[in-house]
Amino acid sequence: MLGFLKEPVVVTAKINVNLVALTVMGLISRLWGLCYPRAVVFDEVYYGQFVSLYMKRIFFVDDSGPPFGHMLLALGGYLGGFDGNFLWNRIGAEYSMNVPVWSLRLLPALAGALCVPLAYQILVELHFSHCAALGAALLILLENSLITQSRFMLLESILIFFILLAVLSYLKFYNLQKHSAFSGSWWFWLLLTGVACSCAVGVKYMGLFTYMLLLAIAGLHFWHMIGDQNLSNVSLLCHFLARALALIIIPMGLYLSFFYVHLALLYRSGPHDQIMTSAFQASLEGGLARITQGQPLEVAYGSQITLRNVLGKPMQCWLHSHTNTYPIRYENGRGSSHQQQVTCYPFKDVNNWWIVKDPGMQQLVVSNPPRPVRHGHIVQLVHGITTRYLNTHDVAAPLSPHSQEVSCYIDYNISMPAQNLWRVEIVNRESDTDVWKTILSEVRFVHVNTSAVLKASGVTGASLPEWGYRQLEVVGEKLSKGYHQSMVWNVEEHRYGKSQEQKEREVELHSPTQMDISKNLSFMAKFTELQWKILTLKNEDTEHKYSSSALDWITMDTNIAYWLHPTSGAQIHLLGNVATWASANAAALVYLCLSLWYLLRRRRKIYDIPEDAWQLWISAGGICGGGWAVNYLPFFLMEKTLFLYHYLPAVTFQILLIPVVLQHLGDHLCRSVLLKSMFSALIVAWFSSVYFVYCSFSPVTYGRPALSLTELKALRWKDTWNILIRKQ
């Protein structure tokens, strides 16, 4: 029974020395001197703010993309014991001792280092030689731009890592398809493909480009499987369901989980609250939640409320009135009703309070029990401080003459009767008997007499002149087909009115309410709102000193100065390896020309290369050339400020194309021994030039040693490069 103990336990393992060596070199190139410079480098000033907010659990919205990449950077800060206390306000600012610089930069550096062995494995899985794979890895290793971008608290190296991991995983899965379908390793690589794609998208939406490419390739491969008569219908269905699960359903679930963790971590109110709805703000600790916590949930006749416009951009504002009236005549000569002004005011104020009144009763207090207002009910809105009724009539609005003026009615004893009845329409109702709810209900107010809809037109247009205190215009919109968010309002602050006398009511309006009713949003409601804000909220793009166009990237006519030492000439620039970038462009051109040539010849039934070599050529082009195209061409359609680092995912794929083309030329065009020897010598000379360029630009890649004035001028190989030279 114990016979197995008579023999020693032996474990054997195959170690790819190339892979180990490349990994070690990648780690050295990215981790060496990682704490230098101990100062804020370029976009660290941007991402560092979010890391600090994570450390303090304060909610924020970043319109540049999903939260997964930010969370990874924050993880580095957490592991280093960062408390979030640092003022991220200036590039070049020295880090204080509480900032764990090495820890914050570690994950991007590790991701950048692991891209080197990933490049090697991708070429191997594409069935190219180990020599070609080694060349691809060394090109990634010696690429100055990738080194620079991975050594700081930035997201591009993490994005490229997940992109390459997704490509490698899919290739391994595909290569297992014929002989090991539905095996453990088959499932592992298929699932890892979906996970890596989701992570890439979760870091930056640029990851979508590679994800769509892999989905298209997977679809094409499955289409070929359908034509395989050896596969039964049941087998095909299982293959389809496995791919749908791993490449669509799991990535979607993982993407949702990024937001779930993000929202779970950031539970405190912060500076970005105001762009979110009242319901979202009230779900955060502090801020609006301190004001609205415990308010009555159901709006009743006699309720005292503030009404916030749902649009919330370019600024949030509340329905407001004050004692001032519209001028008798506007600057353009048009007349007004001279009624009390109604505006949308961007600040909290006692004049934002309104009382919901039953038109059939005189009382302005909530009855016992309260009578809730439902969808379709007719109400009057009484301004809390001035006790005048919200009104609109057939008089042109001050800034929007096509719309009706909205006012609080003053009885001048002239032939202009009050028109102050409004129908409550709950836009997000579940049924026609829904009760109007605080914060949760989004409502339109439709004027009974004219069918005009109460609209904050000022949030999308100009503000009122000096007579309106530069507040935002409110109108009755006659064209009410469908609805715009500027026509939708929600109750933000709410109390049940108890005082019938005006003086007592004014005191009541100035005091907060404290009644316990929870208004927590579900995760899906918060996710939907946050996702929509990320996609639609765009900061005003301004021209940046180092911004560039997509055309500038191919020839590297631009650079970005990341950091400059305050006293010496030491500096860091985002600059690619000129030899590698030029070679990548040449490889792409050669691949395109050769592919067109082969296609024309094959059309004439002339086959210059064997069929397996042709399939290898096409599959490598689909991955490397397709990866370059999908990560580059979309930028020509984008209306945003672009920088050189946006090109890094595309150029990574283009670099992988270089050894593909070189091996193809050596195998199929250099047919004599002499030609092969000459070609090998040229490759050695070319690779030496790549290494020379890497060494030449290492001082501005790593930031040291500091270069003299003459040395800096010598590095300015192009007139368009902005190498920083101090005036003596």
Description:
The protein has 20 helices and 15 strands. Helix 1 runs parallel beside helix 5 and helix 9 runs antiparallel to helix 10 (233-265). The protein is an alpha+beta fold. It folds into 2 domains: 17-261 and 547-715, no CATH class; 297-495, Trefoil (Acidic Fibroblast Growth Factor, subunit A) (Trefoil). It starts with 16 loop residues before the first helix and ends in a 14-residue tail after the last helix. Strands 2, 3, 6, 7, 10, 11 and 12 form a 7-stranded antiparallel beta sheet that branches. Strand 14 and strand 15 (571-574) form a beta hairpin.
Biggest sheet character = 7 strands, antiparallel
Quickly give the structural class: alpha+beta
Q: How much of the residues is beta strand, in percent?
A: 5-15%
Low-pLDDT sequence parts: 513-518
Shape: elongated
Mean pLDDT: 89
Please bin the fraction of helical residues: 40-55%
GO molecular function, one term: dolichyl-phosphate-mannose-protein mannosyltransferase activity
Family: Belongs to the glycosyltransferase 39 family.
Organism: Melanocharis versteri
Membrane topology: Multi-pass membrane protein
Feature tags:
728 residues, alpha+beta, Trefoil (Acidic Fibroblast Growth Factor, subunit A), seven-stranded antiparallel β-sheet, 15 strands, 11% strand, ArnT-like_N
Strand and helix layout:
Elements: H1 17-31, H2 44-55, H3 68-79, H4 101-125, H5 130-141, H6 144-150, H7 156-180, H8 184-203, H9 207-226, H10 233-265, H11 278-282, H12 288-292, E1 303-309, E2 318-325, E3 340-345, E4 353-357, E5 378-383, E6 390-396, E7 404-408, E8 422-426, E9 443-447, E10 453-455, E11 472-473, E12 475-477, E13 489-496, H13 502-509, H14 523-536, H15 550-554, E14 560-564, E15 571-574, H16 578-603, H17 611-632, H18 648-668, H19 673-702, H20 709-714
Antiparallel strand pairs: 1-4, 1-13, 2-3, 3-7, 3-11, 4-5, 5-8, 6-7, 7-12, 8-9, 10-12, 14-15
Helix pairs in contact: 1-4, 1-5, 2-3, 3-4, 4-5, 4-6, 4-7, 5-18, 6-19, 7-8, 7-9, 8-9, 8-10, 9-10, 9-17, 16-18, 17-18
Main location: endoplasmic reticulum
Family: Belongs to the glycosyltransferase 39 family.
GO molecular function: dolichyl-phosphate-mannose-protein mannosyltransferase activity
